[in-house]
TrEMBL record:
GO molecular function, one term: lncRNA binding
Domain Thiolase C-terminal: start-end pairs: 342-481
Localization terms from the record: Endoplasmic reticulum; Mitochondrion inner membrane; Mitochondrion outer membrane
One protein family per Pfam: Thiolase_C
Keywords: Acetylation, Acyltransferase, Endoplasmic reticulum, Fatty acid metabolism, Lipid metabolism, Membrane, Mitochondrion, Mitochondrion inner membrane, Mitochondrion outer membrane, Transferase, Transit peptide
CDD domains, A to Z: thiolase (cd00751)
Residue ranges occupied by any Thiolase N-terminal domain in the UniProt entry: 65-334
Lineage, opening ranks: Eukaryota, Metazoa, Chordata, Craniata, Vertebrata
Protein's recorded name: Trifunctional enzyme subunit beta, mitochondrial
GO biological process entries: cellular response to lipopolysaccharide; fatty acid beta-oxidation; gene expression
E.C. numbers: 2.3.1.155, 2.3.1.16
Cited function: Mitochondrial trifunctional enzyme catalyzes the last three of the four reactions of the mitochondrial beta-oxidation pathway. The mitochondrial beta-oxidation pathway is the major energy-producing process in tissues and is performed through four consecutive reactions breaking down fatty acids into acetyl-CoA. Among the enzymes involved in this pathway, the trifunctional enzyme exhibits specificity for long-chain fatty acids.
PANTHER family on file: ACETYL-COA C-ACYLTRANSFERASE, TRIFUNCTIONAL ENZYME SUBUNIT BETA, MITOCHONDRIAL
Species per Swiss-Prot/TrEMBL record: Monodon monoceros
Subunit organization: Heterotetramer of 2 alpha/HADHA and 2 beta/HADHB subunits; forms the mitochondrial trifunctional enzyme. Also purified as higher order heterooligomers including a 4 alpha/HADHA and 4 beta/HADHB heterooligomer which physiological significance remains unclear. The mitochondrial trifunctional enzyme interacts with MTLN. Interacts with RSAD2/viperin.
Length: 485
C-alpha cells in the first residue's frame, strides 16, 4: 500500500491526479474560510433545542458507569508559574480540587489511576505519591499509566473496566504533566562508568575506570522528542500530513485562530468550569489557563516554519504548546453514585483504541477510531451533539476532518465502504481546544471528557464524542451520554 506521503508526491507530479486529489479530499465548499476565522455562531439556545427522542445506550446486564464531576488545575505554558514544582504537586492539587468539588469521602475511593508521559524518576508512580499527598487512605491502591497523549483516556477506561467487572465501585482517574522540568540524563557512557565505579572494590580499579573518562561523556541526553520507531518528530509528521492532504498554511492559521477565539470567549463566559484555583507555594493563586492568546492572521503569518524549513506550514502559532497541568475525574457505578446522593453529569459509554502506521498515519487516530466507536454504540455522526477532539496541530485536525469526509480514503486506507463524515464545526470544539487551552500530555483526556459532559448539560444534547491521536500512531474515541435531568 502506498503511504499517504508517497501518494501526495505522485499526485504533485501528475496534474490530472492533483485534480483528482482535490475532488476526493477537498469537497467544494468544505473549507469556507469565514467559518474558521473568529468566533463561531453560538449553538442553539437551550430552550430552542428540541426534546430528544434518542434511546439511551444502557446495555442489559451491564453496570452503568457515570462521571460525577471532574476538575483540572489551570493549564499553563511551561516555564511559567508551575516551573518550580514537581508533577505530584500538580496531581495532588487536582485530587484536592476534586475532593473539594465533590465532597467524596476519601476512604470510599477504591482505586486511583493517573496518566503521565514524561515521568519524574523520583515519583515514577505519581498516582500513589499524589494520592498520599492529597490525604487519601494509604490503603487505597494507585497506579500510573502511560499512553502518550491519551494517557488519561487510558486511566479513565481502566477505571471503567474496574467498575464494570465489579472489582470497584468508586475510582478516581486523572493525569498530569510538568514540561517545565523534564528529566535530563547523563550520557550512556557516563552512566556506565558511574555504575562501574560504584561496584569497584579497590583504588586501582577506580583509577583504571577514571582513566577512561572523556569530555564527551558529559554530553547530556534529553528526553526523546521523536518517535523511537521512526526517529521523526511529531511536528515533522504533522507537516507532512498537512502537505499530503493539501492543507494550506492559511487554513491552519485560521483554525488556530478559531480555537483561541472560542477559548477566550468560553473563558470570559465562565464556561470552563472544570478549572479550579491553585495556590502555587510561594507564589500567587493561579485561576485560569494562560495560553489563550487570540492573535491575528497577519501576526501569525510572520512566524517561520517550526519543523520543515523553509517550506513547512506548521508553526508555533498553529501547534499546541508545551504545557503544565493536571486533571482528575470521579467515576462511579451509577447505583453507588445515587446511593451516595450524587447527581452525575454523564455516562461513560462505548470506547475504542486504534493504532496505525506511526510513520505516515501517526496523527490520524480520530479518523480510524470514530467510525468504530459509532458502530459499537449503534450511532451515526448525526446523533452526536458535541464533538471534542484533541488538537495537537491545526494541520492534524484539518487532515482528520478531510480524511473522515473522504470515501476514497475510507476505501483505500481503512477498508471501509464509505466515509463516516466530517463533524460540523458548529458542534466541534466550540469552547476551544488543545491549541489554545494547552496540552499537558498526560492530562488532556480528562479535560476532553469534562468539556463534553459540561457542553451536553448546557446545550441540552444527549451524546458526545471524544477522540484523540497519540504518539506511536495510536488513537482513542469514546461516547459520552448526558445524564438525564
Amino acid at each position: 500500500m502506498w503511504t499517504i506521503f508517497k501518494v501526495f508526491i505522485e499526485f504533485v507530479n501528475n496534474t490530472a491526479s492533483v485534480l483528482c486529489f482535490c475532488v476526493f479530499f477537498c469537497p467544494r465548499g468544505m473549507w469556507d474560510r469565514s467559518s474558521l476565522t473568529g468566533i463561531q455562531p453560538a449553538p442553539p439556545a437551550l430552550e430552542a433545542v428540541q426534546a430528544k427522542s434518542k434511546q439511551t445506550l444502557a446495555k442489559p446486564n451491564m453496570r452503568n458507569i457515570v462521571v460525577v464531576d471532574g476538575v483540572r488545575t489551570p493549564f499553563l505554558l511551561s516555564g511559567t508559574s508551575y516551573k518550580d514544582l514537581m508533577p505530584h504537586d500538580l496531581a495532588r492539587a487536582a485530587l484536592s480540587g476534586l475532593l473539594h468539588r465533590t465532597s467524596v469521602p476519601k476512604d470510599v475511593v477504591d482505586y486511583i489511576i493517573f496518566g503521565t508521559v514524561i515521568q519524574e524518576v523520583k515519583t515514577s508512580n505519581v498516582a500513589r505519591e499524589a494520592a498520599l499527598g492529597a490525604g487519601f487512605s494509604d490503603r487505597t491502591p494507585a497506579h500510573t499509566v502511560t499512553m502518550a497523549c491519551i494517557s488519561s483516556n487510558q486511566a479513565m477506561t481502566t477505571a471503567v473496566g474496574l467498575i464494570a467487572s465489579g472489582q470497584c465501585d468508586v475510582v478516581v482517574a486523572g493525569g498530569v504533566e510538568l514540561m517545565s522540568d523534564v528529566p535530563i540524563r547523563h550520557s550512556r557512557k557516563m552512566r556506565k562508568m558511574m555504575l562501574d565505579l560504584s561496584k569497584a572494590k579497590t583504588l586501582g580499579q577506580r583509577l583504571s575506570l577514571i582513566s577512561q573518562f572523556r569530555l564527551n561523556f558529559l554530553s547530556p541526553e534529553l528526553p526523546a522528542v521523536a518517535e523511537f520507531s521512526t526517529n521523526e518528530t511529531m511536528g515533522h509528521s504533522a507537516d507532512r500530513l498537512a502537505a499530503a492532504f493539501a492543507i494550506s498554511r492559511l487554513e491552519q492559521d485560521e483554525y488556530a485562530l478559531r480555537s483561541h477565539s472560542l477559548a477566550k470567549k468560553a473563558q470570559g463566559e465562565g464556561l470552563l468550569s472544570d478549572v479550579v484555583p491553585f495556590k502555587v507555594p510561594g507564589k500567587d493563586t493561579v485561576t485560569q489557563d494562560n495560553g489563550i492568546r487570540p492573535s491575528s492572521l497577519e501576526q501569525m503569518a510572520k512566524l517561520k516554519p517550526a519543523f520543515i524549513k523553509p517550506y513547512g506550514t506548521v508553526t508555533a502559532a498553529n501547534s499546541s504548546f508545551l504545557t503544565d497541568g493536571a486533571s482528575a475525574v470521579l467515576i462511579l457505578a451509577e447505583e453507588k453514585a445515587l446511593a451516595m446522593g450524587y447527581k452525575p453529569k454523564a455516562y461513560l459509554r462505548d470506547f475504542v483504541y486504534v493504532s496505525q502506521d506511526p510513520k505516515d498515519q501517526l496523527l490520524l487516530g480520530p479518523t480510524y477510531a470514530t467510525p468504530k466507536v459509532l458502530e459499537k454504540a449503534g450511532l451515526t455522526m448525526n446523533d452526536i451533539d458535541a464533538f471534542e477532539f484533541h488538537e495537537a496541530f491545526s494541520g492534524q485536525i484539518l487532515a482528520n476532518l478531510k480524511a473522515m469526509d473522504s470515501d476514497w480514503f475510507a476505501q483505500n486506507y481503512m477498508g471501509r465502504k464509505a466515509k463516516v463524515g466530517s463533524p460540523p464545526l458548529e458542534k466541534f470544539n466550540i469552547w476551544g481546544g488543545s491549541l489554545s487551552l494547552g496540552h499537558p500530555f498526560g492530562a488532556t483526556g480528562c479535560r476532553l471528557v469534562m468539556a463534553t459532559a459540561n457542553r451536553l448539560q448546557k446545550e441540552g444534547g444527549q451524546y458526545g464524542l471524544v477522540a484523540a491521536c497519540a504518539a506511536g500512531g495510536q488513537g482513542h474515541a469514546m461516547i459520552v451520554e448526558a445524564y438525564p435531568k
